[in-house]
Amino acid sequence: MLTIGELASYAGVTVRAVRHYHAKGLLPEPERDHSGYRRYGADAVVELIRIRTLAEAGVPLARVRDLLRADEEEFATAVADIDKRLRAEIRERQRHRERVARLTSGDSLALPPEVVEFLDRLRALGVDERIVQVERDGWIPLAAHAPERVPEWMARKREQIADPRFIAFYLTLGQALDRTDDDPRLVELADQLAAYLTQMAEERGEDYIDDADIAPPLAKVMDTLAFDTMPSARRLIELLKQRGWTGWTKLERVAATRDRGGAASGLPRISGGGLGRR
Predict the structure, then answer these.
(1) Dist CA 246 CA 274 (whole Å)
(2) How confident is the model over 229-248, as pLDDT tens digits?
């Protein structure tokens, strides 16, 4: 026969837990012996272990009470249900572990792998990190807003960074980031960019340029991200407008006439690609 302390030790619980289970009616409380002690038999150890195991599995004590009174078939069914729930919780916790592990993984935490690969490629090409961050910050809302279009956009991006003119523009922009608004380098960059946009429109046609279809509110968010990171971009837009183009994320010809569908008639428009996404 066992004392309450010995019972608790065998079952791996505290004496307080044993008394709690007594109070809840889960474990019968034996009568005191002639010495004034409550003595427990081996069956109490088995019952207490069952109670502890079910409770640790997250089964409410009220449900534990019912299970202890159930027949063998009902108990086995309940245990199978508990096991199913625990396996689902394990999978969910594993997903949490994976998410926590990704907290140290930088860009891949919030971006698809192909976008991360593109950003790494920009870095390898020597593009200023501030420009890479503008690209990154712009891709996050894009990927969240239209994840199904990311492969399409990235295919275009891979094609663009294979063009030396495109990379030259990025490199020149990086050199101009710390310049003042009256710096001649910004004028040179505006000339270069306007020529690039015009030539691209002539070579590829309007359909090639105008296909990103980014909603105006999202484009505004992306513009703000760019201007906050690169203040000189605002001056660049002013200079670019003097050269026939306007906008940042949603670029379009200045003073373009529009057809009924809202597209520029006879003049190419870069919609969505923009300076920050092209």
Answers:
(1) 10
(2) 777 778 888 888 888 877 77
